[in-house]
Amino acid sequence: GAGVSQSPSNKVTEKGKDVELRCDPISGHTALYWYRQSLGQGLEFLIYFQGNSAPDKSGLPSDRFSAERTGGSVSTLTIQRTQQEDSAVYLCASSSRGRQSYEQYFGPGTRLTVT
Amino acid sequence: SQQGEEDPQALSIQEGENATMNCSYKTSINNLQWYRQNSGRGLVHLILIRSNEREKHSGRLRVTLDTSKKSSSLLITASRAADTASYFCATDAYGNNRLAFGKGNQVVVIP
Fold first, then answer.
1. Kind and range of the H or E element at A113?
2. pLDDT under 50 in chain A at which residues?
3. Which residue among B31, B97, B104 places its CB closest to the CB of A42?
4. Rounded Cα distance, A13 and B44, in Å
5. Would you call B68 an interface residue with chain A, using a CB distance cutoff of 8 Å?
6. B92 contacts on A by Cβ (under 8 Å)
7. Which of A115, A103, A96 is nearest to A1 (CA)?
8. Contact B47, B65 (CB under 8 A)
9. Residue A55 carries which DSSP code?
10. Mean pLDDT for all residues in chain A
11. How far apart are CA A43 and CA B41, in angstroms?
12. Backbone phi and psi for residue A22, each to the nearest 5 degrees, phi listed first
């Protein structure tokens, strides 16, 4: 079946604008994760969804960041009033199990550039 | 430093040679995973080793885990140009809902 998809693949926005990034996980995967990767850096955890449980938002860097997951499937990461330091690749991953004892499947990412 | 931190190095090797990279971490883990990333985009899972395992093989990959030293190594044997990528280790710590990724190792295999 299809893998994790993300859209858009690239997004250029002006400082102060809001952006929405979308993630379509693998069908049937109950766990969904958002990460951020700055140039040449590792992955920074942002948020984790598991089924109908309350999401783990502890990695969100500020209150300008929020995420939703509708119907246990598609997720949207929203960044309000974007800043230049928000420029990064935003990666989404899904997993078939709730625990991270199992591998995560990553999407191709959205490259966000804030000018 | 964060969980799952590789020796921050860039490896440049000739095709056919072996590539070894290391990862260290600080707290108790449930398992450790290695991922590959091409061209700064999505990561691909390579191998998972559980805390009660010491060594694991998958094709040309060999992973070791030393929980007493809190370290792991990834060996790629008989490297190919297609192995050129960044390699990340990630740790799954008990009680966390997340994987902690290191900064990655850049490997360049010269044909």
1. strand A110-114
2. none
3. B104
4. 28
5. no
6. 99-101
7. A96
8. no
9. P
10. 91
11. 11
12. -115, 145
